[in-house]
Amino acid sequence: MEKKMLFAPGPVITTERVKTAALIPDICHRSRYFEEILSELRPKILKIYNCDDSYTSVVISGSGTASNESVYSSLCGSSDKVLLITNGEFGNRLKDIIECYNIKYTELKYEWGEYPDCEDIEKILEKDKEITIVGMVCHETSTGIINPVKDVGNLCRKYGKLFFLDAISAVGGEYLDFSEYNVDVCTGVPNKCVSGHPGTSFVVLRKNLIKKAYDTKPRNIYLNLGRHIKIAEEKNQTPNTPSVIMINVLLESVKELLEEGVENRIRRYKKLARIIREGLYEMGLEIFLTDPAQMANTVTTVYLPKKIPMNEFLTEMENEGYVFYDGKGDLKSKNLFQIANMGNLDEKDCIEMLKVLKKVLIGKFSYEIS
Ligand SMILES: Cc1ncc(COP(=O)(O)O)c(C=O)c1O
Questions:
Q1: pTM to 2 decimals?
Q2: For ligand 1, mutation pick of 164, 168, 191, 223 (most atoms within 8 Å of CB)
Q3: What percent of the chain has pLDDT over 90?
C-alpha cells in the first residue's frame, strides 16, 4: 500500500514508534500485563490536561462518539437538563446523542463558524433554572473554530453548572487546563492531535462525579460509564474485552506527546498552521474563518475556487499523495475543503504540500493566482 500524506483531521500520520507499539506479544486482557498498560496510561492521560488528583480517566474501546455517548447517556439523569451550544457538525452530533437518549435539553444554535456569544449563554443560564449541565465542543472540527471554553467554564462556575467538553480534536493541539477552565467531564481520542491510531477514546472526569455515574439509571451496557469507572478504579480493567493492542498504541502515543511536551506540541502545530495559512494566502485562496484568534492550531477550512470541481480536485491531490477533507454539511456546497496539520508532520512536509497544491491548481485546473 502506498504511503499517503494525511492532511485531514484524523486519522493522522504516526511515528514508527507508535506503529511499532502494535507489535507487542498477544496478551490476555485479564492479565497483569494489560493492567500494567492501563495503570500507566490512565494517569498519563490526566497529565495532558494538567489535571490534579481530583480527576480520573477511563479508556473506552470505540471511537470518540463512543466516549461522547457514554458521557451523556451515563451522566444525564432524569432531573438533568443540558444547555447545548452548537456551531457545526460535531455540536449537531452531540445533539443526536442527547435526542437519542431522550435527555432534556435546550439548544443555543449558531451558524457554522459563528463564535458563541457568552452574553447569550449567560442570559439562558440566568433564566432557565432547570439547566444543570452545559455541553459544547472545544475545537469544532467541521469549521476549525475554537469555542470560548474558558469563558463558558467560568459561567458554569458562576451558575453552579456541570461543564461537559468534547475535546476530541483539541486534546494535544490546544491549550486546555481543566482547573483553570473548570471542565468537569471531557472526551478525547488518540487519532488526531495526540498522533495515535483510531479505535479507542477516553473520558476524563472529576472524581466527585463518579457517584452520579453510578447512580444514574443505566441506559446501555457497553457504554455505561459507571461500569467503566468502577472496574478501572478497582483494578485497571475494562468491563468487556478491550482493544488490547490499540490501547497499547494509545499509551505509546500519549508517552510520545508527554515527552515532546504538550506546550511544545501545541507550538509545533501552531507554526505548521501558520506556514499553511501564509501559503494559502500567497496563492490567493480564501480561508473560511476570518479572525485568526478563533482559528484552531490544526485545521484550516479553505474555499476552493468555484469553477474547480471538489471531487476532481481531491482525487488529483490524492493521486499526488496528499489527503484533504471536503467540507461537511452546507460547507460542501460552498466548495470548502479542509487542510489539517495534526500528527507526525513537520515544516518541510507542509512546504512540500503547498508546492504540490499550487502545481495541481495551476497545472490541472488552470488556476490563476491573482
Ligand atoms: C469534535 C469531534 N467530536 C466528535 C467526533 C466524532 O469522533 P469519532 O469519529 O472518533 O467517533 C469528531 C470526529 O472527527 C470530532 O472532531
A1: 0.97
A2: 168
A3: 98
